[in-house]
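Obj: model holo form, ligand = pyridoxal-5'-phosphate.
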Amino acid sequence: MSFRFDQTRAQIARMTTAWCRPADSVRLIAVSKQHSADKVADLARLGQRDFAENYLQEGLEKITQVNHLLPKAIADSLCWHFIGHVQSRKCRLLAERFDWVHSVDSIKVADKLHQYRSGDPINVLIQLNLQQEQQKSGVSAQDLLTLAKHILELPNLRLRGLMTVAKLENDFAKQRAAFGRCRELFDTLNLQGFNIDHLSMGMSATLEAAIAEGSTMVRLGTALFGPRPGKTHMQHVQ
Ligand SMILES: *Cc1c(COP(=O)(O)O)cnc(C)c1O
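Output (holo structure tokens):
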């Protein structure tokens, strides 16, 4: 096994302390896209519980495969996060199979998830696109409040917070500025009584800036699994 599981957890713990955050306030979400079900199962046996996928079909297949590879008690305790662009015609499968959707960015998608969810409410985050990047999903700061209020009206959805994907920049201060704006909007919503508790920010290249700015969920692929097989460095663009 070639995971950097212990190292990654130690790194998160170190940064959490260094930025004066409470211990265990940052949850590691293992981004398993393009990695095999075997690897996911191995990591689950080591104790990892949160996994994220960004393509629905790949995610659904992997969930089924992983469930077959693991003892039922472990399989049932896994938490599956969807972090990719949500197409409204795919919402039924998302609502049925995932526990969290980090990338809700329209009223239409929220309504569809609500329509198809039964049982426990699905946990959702609103994806923000604060740097107005055309190729990325997400709502602007102006549209955030309308969407957040709408989600509160949907009992099958539980609004938990905000998610953002920062531009890939090597400049730590710029990364922090982008995440800092997301945190400000998070604080504003809480001042208005929304009672949300999660900020999904930070990938392998932006981990420390995200922790510095209050991230509670870091989405790590490369740092944990190594490079994704057979793709160029541009594959993070959605
Ligand atoms: C792929 C992906 C990640 C993980 O990226 P790494 O750079 O491999 O850590 C995190 N978030 C989203 C939305 C992704 O698509």
